Structures are given as structure tokens and as C-alpha cells.
Amino acid sequence: MAVPVTVPERPARRVSPWHFVRLKLRVLGNNFRGQTWRVALFVLGLLFGLWFAAVGFFLLAAPGLAGESRYALMIAAFGGGLLTLGWLLLPLVFFGVDETLDPARFALLPLSRRTLVTGLLAAALVSVPALATAITAAGLVVTAGALGGWAAALVGALGVVVGLLVCLAGARALTSAFATMLRSRRVRDLAAVLLAVLAALLGPLQLLVLAAVRQTDWDRLDGVARVVGWTPFGAPWTAGLDVAQGRTGAAVVKLLIALATLGVLLFWWSRSLETAMVGAASSGPARTPRAVAGGAVAQLFPRAVGWARRDRFGALVARECRYWWRDARRRANLITVAVVGVFVPMMVNLGGVSFTTEGGAELGGADSSPALVSLSMIFVGALASLTLANQFGFDGSSYAANVVAGVPGRVELRARMAAFSIYVVPMLVVIAVALAVVLGRPEWLGVMGGALFAAYGCGLAINAFVSVLGAYSLPESSNPFALNSGAGFTKGLLTLVSMVGSAVVAVPFVVAAALLGDVWLWLALPLGLAYGGGAALLGAYMAGDTLDHRQPELLANVTPRR
Q1: Residue 505 contacts by C-beta under 8 Å, 6 or more apart in sequence?
Q2: 549: buried, middle or exposed (CB in 10 Å: 19+, 13-18, 0-12)?
Q3: 380-401 burial by CB neighbour count: b if 16+ within 10 A, else e?
Q4: Helices (DSSP H) in 111-127: which residue ranges?
Q5: Rounded distance between C-alpha atoms, residue 321 and residue 408, angstroms
Q6: Contact yes or no for 181/188 (Cβ under 8 A)
Q7: Going along 314-467, which residue ranges are E strands?
Q8: Is the pLDDT of residue 480 over 60?
């Protein structure tokens, strides 16, 4: 008679942050397998990150090595504050966030919210930006140690670790929360207004910084640095210097402020992360479609493209228009164009307006000029077209439908340019008119429009080639700012190539504004429209031939790898 054998059950292993780190490293290795160009870009990004980290390290360590305790506090407060602010804003504007581990993949697993957040935070530490930030902030540890010994260095190291965690948690919480907001079209306009208001505050801040620098009132700067040191932006970075200067109690309080900030950010991130995972955001109740003249085909064409022919070109324009309006990832780029396009020209041109405060401090400097206005407009035009640098990456694997249908490359690119311009061109017009009104120079409106549309058209042409030759895949994530590991440097490199190329091609409009005087006020706008429109059509024509030969390779590049 057989005796039954009882096999003892193995106890369930507790999931720790280390499991998420190992999982990220394994996914990262799988993404690089057989992709030599991805490995090369990742190594190049690592080298650039280490180079910038080394420069930042020596800048933050210099006051301690020189024995300047007064300047050490200012550099720690302002430098640490800029690091934190950069982590909060740059993912929204340029680089995105690395989501090699998509949180949505864990939605059906029995993981607690705490386990998921701590695991994803630990995985976020395994990245080039986090490594570069840690190396840079280590300069503060050297400064604290040189000025106050090993105790100050130990507290400084603890502050750097907490500050780095605050940066990571803040970036993830902000992008995750903003992603959730963008999924609801009811609140996207409110989100854009709030971002625009926050961005507009940078102009007055720039004027205050200019005034402080020109007056060289180091006592005032020292006072501002001490105030910043008590905020979440500067508290973790200045704790070690407080110990070096004998203020141990202040250092303890600052560490508590940093830890409390970290706790709040993690709590905020966990809430927004859970909402993104379960898809709680809703676009509202379904509406009964109303009858449209022309039948079912006409219903596929939004009102903005009612002028389009009912052919392949018109269908592509209509489809792209709907995608730009409904896709959260694309809407995020449109909002970025609107916000940055407003405050950068204001900062460049209003930064030179001179006026005197009640205390006698003179703010600003040289007046604006047509050449300076044209230069700022070239930046806005190049930035506006930059969104199309990875336009096929938005489609992902769905681009296969275009490949199967055999859409000609020229038709594809012209349709995408037209659909994107339907949203962007009105924004560019508003930006130019608003700047002319604020500067009190309505006669400069033609100069602004000429440089703006010349740079925008040249940018469309350049980005047509960039999008075909340098496309990369985007993660299948609900977060519109998410990027695969290593893609941040790719995006930054494409940004640099596109911006520099567009600016160089449009430089003649700056030269003409500086040399031709009043004659250019009348010639700039028509020449800019012709120059930009011709460049865009020529770019679509030439890049279209390249696209016809690279459709299979392009589809492989933009298809996400699981």
C-alpha cells in the first residue's frame, strides 16, 4: 500500500525593491539584444552624463576646497534647487521619464501600493540621470567634509541621498499626475493654463536675478540662499553645511523637511500611479453622434479639415488631426509648445526692458531689437516643429497599416505636416501677436511672423528626415512622458540636431532684420511664408523618397519590444 507523501509548500517570497531592480536590468538587457545602435546611443549618453556630472561635481566642491564657507552655502542652495527644479520640469519639456518597467504591467499582480512605489523608485535609481545627479551632488559632500570634518560629510551624504530621492519621486509624481490629467479632455485646458501661469513666473524671476547680479549685493544673495535652504528645494542639499557651521539643530530640521517632502511626493505618486493603472480617468458619458451631411465618410473628417479632399491625403490629415486631439502623448507635446513658446520670447525680449524699483535697483538692460525678436522667434518656430522629430514613434506598431496600404512617403509626410500645422500655426500667430502687444511694437509683427514661419517650415523639413532616419519606439504606457531606458539621450540628441539645423537654416532672417532696417518690416512676412512653405514642401518631397525605401526598417524601429 502506497503511503502518500506530503510535499511541504514553499513559503511565498516577499517582493522587495531588489526584485524590481533585477527586473529592470533584465528588460534593459533584452531591449539592447541585437540592437547595436541602441547600445551605442546608451554608451554615448552615459559618457555625456558622466562628463556633465564631473563638471557639476567640481563646481559644487570648489567652495569647500577653497575654504569659502559663505559661497558654499549659496552654491549648495542654488545649485541643489536647480537640480530639483530640473528634475521636475525637464521630463515635461524635453527628456521624459524612463519607464522601462511600465506600471500598468503590474496592475493584475497582488502587489501592495507600498511595494509597487518603493520598487519602481528603486528601479528609477538605475539610470544615467540618477547616476549623474548623484555624482554631481557628491561635490556637496566634499565641501561639507572640507569645512566641517567627517560629521558634516556624513550628514551631507545623507542629505544628498534624500535629495536624490526627492528629485526622482517629484519627477515621477508630477509626470504621472499630469498624465492622468491629460487623459481627461475636460481638464486639459485647465492644465495648460496652470502650466502657462507657472512658466510666466520665470520672467519676473529672471528680472530679479539680473538685478541681484548687477547690484552684486552678496548679503542679499546670502539671505536668499538661506531662505531657499529652508525650502524642500534646498533643505537636503544644505544640511551638511549647517553642521559644518555649527548649526546641528538646523541640519536636523532640514533633514526632517526633506523626509516629509519625500513622504508627500511618494504618497502623491502612489495615488496618481494607481489611477493611471486602473484607468479611472474618464472622458465623460458617451454622446449620441449627430447626423452629418455627407454620410459616414464625412463623419470621419473633423470640422477643422472639412476643406480636405476625400482621398488618401485627406483621410490621412483627418486621422492625424483626431490623433493630435485625443492622444494624451501628443497633447502633452502641444501643451509644451504653447507654454515654452510663450515664456521664452518674453524672457529674451522683456529681460532687456529697463525700469527702476523703489529701492533704486535697475532691472533689465539693453532694449529689444528686430534682430533679437527674430532670434527668439526662430527658437519658437524650431521648437514647434521639434514635436515631429519622432512622429512615427507615436504610431508604434499601428504604422503597419500604412505600410500594408502602400501609402507613398511624400503623401504621408505632407499629410502629417498639414494636420500638425492645423493646431500649431494658430498658436504661433497668437504668440507673435501677444509679444508685439507686450513690447508695444506692432510694426514688428511682420518681422516676428517672417522669422517664426521660416524657422517653422525649415524645422518641418529637417524633422521629416529626422523622423524617418532616427525614429525610436515609445513604451506602451498611459504616461505620455514615459520613455524606454536609453531613449532619453536619443530624444535629447534628436532635439539638438533638429534645433540647431532649423536655427542655422533660418539665420538669414536674423541677418536681414539687423541690416535692412525699415524695409524688412514689410518684406519679412511674405518672404518668411514663402521660405518656410517652400522648405517644408521640399523636405516632404525629398524625405518621402527615403521613407519609401525605409518603411520596413522604420516599422521595426517604432514597434515596442516587450
Answers
A1: 455, 458, 462, 535
A2: exposed
A3: bbbbbbbbbbbbbbbbbeebee
A4: 113-124
A5: 19
A6: yes
A7: 355-356, 362-363
A8: no
DSSP 310: S
Rounded distance between C-alpha atoms, residue 54 and residue 374, angstroms? 36
Q: What is the pLDDT of residue 354?
A: 43
Rounded CA-CA distance 18/462 in Å is: 43
In a 3-state reduction of DSSP, which class is residue 404? helix
Give the pLDDT score at 64.
84
Asked whether the predicted pLDDT for residue 220 surpasses 50, the reply is yes
What pLDDT is recorded for position 387?
82
Per-residue model confidence as pLDDT tens digits over 146-196: 888 888 899 999 999 999 999 988 888 877 776 655 555 545 545 544 554
Average pLDDT over residues 127-141: 89
Query: Distances from the Cα of 462 to the Cαs of 40, 251, 415, 469, 497, in angstroms?
Result: 23, 51, 16, 11, 9
CA neighbours closer than 13 Å in the CB half-sphere of residue 228:
23
C-beta of residue 366 within 8 angstroms of C-beta of residue 324: no
For residues 549 and 365, give the distance between their C-alpha atoms in angstroms, rounded to a whole number.
53
Tell me the DSSP string of 131-155. HHHHHHHHHHHHHHHHHHHHHHHHH
pLDDT tens digits, residue range 451-465? 889 999 999 999 888
**Alpha carbons 67 and 162: distance in angstroms, whole number:** 25
The answer to whether 265 and 169 have CB atoms below 8 angstroms apart is yes
What are the grid coordinates assigned to 426, written together?
494658430
pLDDT at 287: 47
Q: What is the mean pLDDT of residues 504-510?
A: 83
Q: Measure Cα distances from 168 to 81, 158, 229 in Å.
A: 14, 16, 19
Residue 476 has pLDDT above 80, yes or no: no
The CA–CA distances, whole Å, from 409 to 2, 312, 460 equal 73, 12, 15
Question: Do the Cβ atoms of 418 and 494 come closer than 8 Å?
Answer: no
Q: Kind of pairing, strands 482-483 and 362-363?
A: unpaired
Question: Where are the alpha helices (H) located in 216-355, listed in sequence order?
Answer: 218-229, 235-244, 248-278, 296-299, 312-326, 328-350
Cα torsion 29, 31, 33, 36 to 10°: value is: -110
CA 174/CA 192 separation, integer angstroms: 14
What distances in angstroms separate CA 43 from CA 91, 98, 230, 485, one per listed residue?
21, 16, 38, 12
CB–CB of 514/372 below 8 Å?
Answer: no
Per-residue pLDDT tens for 393-405? 888 888 888 888 8
Q: At what angle do helices 519-558 and 409-439 cross, to 10 degrees?
A: 140
Torsion of CA 188, 432, 506, 314, to 10 degrees: 50
Q: How far is residue 42 from each of residues 30, 124, 353, 481, measured CA to CA in Å?
A: 14, 16, 43, 19
* CA 342 remoteness from chain centre: 16
Task: Return d(Cα 512, Cα 531) in angstroms, integer.
Answer: 14
